[in-house]
Amino acid sequence: MSREINTVGVVGLGTMGAGIVEVFARSGIDVVAVEVAEAALDRGQATLVGSIDRAVAKGKLTPEERDEIFARVGFAVGFEALHDVDLVIEAVPEQLPLKQRIFAELDRVCKPDAILATNTSSLSVTEISVATSRPNQVIGVHFFNPAPVMKLVEIVRTVVTAADVVADVEALCARLGKTDVTINDRAGFIANALLFGYLNQAVSMLEARYATREDIDAAMRLGCGLPMGPLALMDLIGIDTAYEILDTMYRRGGRDRRHAPVPLIKQMVTAGLLGRKTGRGFYTYE
Ligand code: CAA
User: Which family is this protein grouped under (predicted)?
Assistant: First the structure.
């Protein structure tokens, strides 16, 4: 039986969560955007406003369209605001105990037929799903950064995800104008399983002083036609997020050396050099 998905909830308004809110609101779908504290909510709201205002300044959206988009988004602190949404996407940091706590809470608050989705990029959707009493309605819906721009969504079904839940999410992705690929629950899914060994290797080259950051990035942009070099891409993803993804894939993926995080990555995380979001990573940003 297919559900009508008219209102979605987004939990966590960091880089990915705020981008996902924008994707839904720009596609005409009502969104309830939730954070755990006012300060984080304000930051998420500012990210959304900044992105939409840039689109207006470029002439991609009219001021009327901007107002319609903002009218579709409700902001709230706490999970209770999600009691009536048809689907929730969780986009909090990549830590299993945190996600499990949130899913237990979503299970308590959300209506019985609501779909509970995680934007995890490397954790086990199955392990997240068993924190609820409805693992058959739990699914991975993995967007790429920047979510409003990147066309792909990886849909991750577990061994117990119901077929109608997969079909409903596939239909939703089509409404968002995204292309989806539906896969089973494996560390890193398709894209990150292929991407992160390469990113780790690029940092290793820099750490060994084999090449400069500019040369590594230029080689991949100009020699291989990629839109960004690997170090600039890691700054976009966030060095902390990249570390968590590599570490999880290393541990879940049979300790493949390609995914053992290069020491420099951990050092940068400890020093607070997290990439664009903190103004400094491999490069410096205004
Ligand atoms: N939010 C919203 N829109 C954004 C944006 C953002 N953060 N960043 C860029 N855009 C939009 C711009 O507004 C612009 O839109 P218009 O064409 O409508 O004007 C468009 O994207 C192009 O942007 P720019 O002209 O500023 O810059 P660009 O052409 O260099 O593109 C880029 C920027 C889209 C980020 C491009 O460099 C790119 O595709 N990079 C690779 C990104 C990538 O590989 N992402 C996947 C990361 S892995 C991941 O996400 C998985 C995970 O789990 C970590």
Answer: Belongs to the 3-hydroxyacyl-CoA dehydrogenase family.
Positions of the chain with pLDDT under 70: 1
Q: What are phi and psi of 118, to 5 degrees?
A: -120, 140
Sequence-ordered strand ranges (E) for the chain: 7-11, 30-35, 73-77, 87-90, 115-118, 138-143, 152-157, 179-184
Find out whether the beta carbon of 60 lies less than 6 Å from any atom of ligand 1: yes
Q: For ligand 1, atom 18, which residue shows the shortest CA distance?
A: 60
Distance 50 CA to ligand 1 centre (A): 15
Note the pLDDT of residue 216: 98
Cβ–ligand 1 contact at 121 (below 6 Å): yes
pLDDT at 1: 64
Which residue minimizes the CA distance to atom 13 of ligand 1?
55
Residue 283 CB contacts under 8 Å (≥ 6 apart), including other chains: 213, 231, 232, 235
From ligand 1's centre to the CA of 1, what distance in Å? 36
The answer to whether residues 33 and 12 touch, using CB atoms and an 8 Å cutoff, is no
| Closest C-alpha residue for ligand 1 atom 5 | 146
Is 151's C-beta closer than 6 angstroms to any atom of ligand 1?
no
175-209 pLDDT, tens digit each: 999 999 999 999 999 999 999 999 999 999 999 99
Q: What is the pLDDT of residue 102?
A: 97
The per-residue b/e assignment along 34-50, b for 16 or more CB within 10 angstroms, e otherwise, is bbeeeebbebbbebbee
Q: Which atom of ligand 1 is nearest to the CA of 58?
A: 19
Span 72-93, pLDDT tens digits: 999 999 999 999 999 999 999 9
What ipTM does the predicted assembly reach?
0.94
The pLDDT value recorded for residue 254 is 84
Residue 38: alpha-carbon gap to chain centroid: 21
Compute how many other C-beta atoms are within 10 angstroms of the C-beta atom of residue 62: 11
Fill in the amino acid letter for 225. G
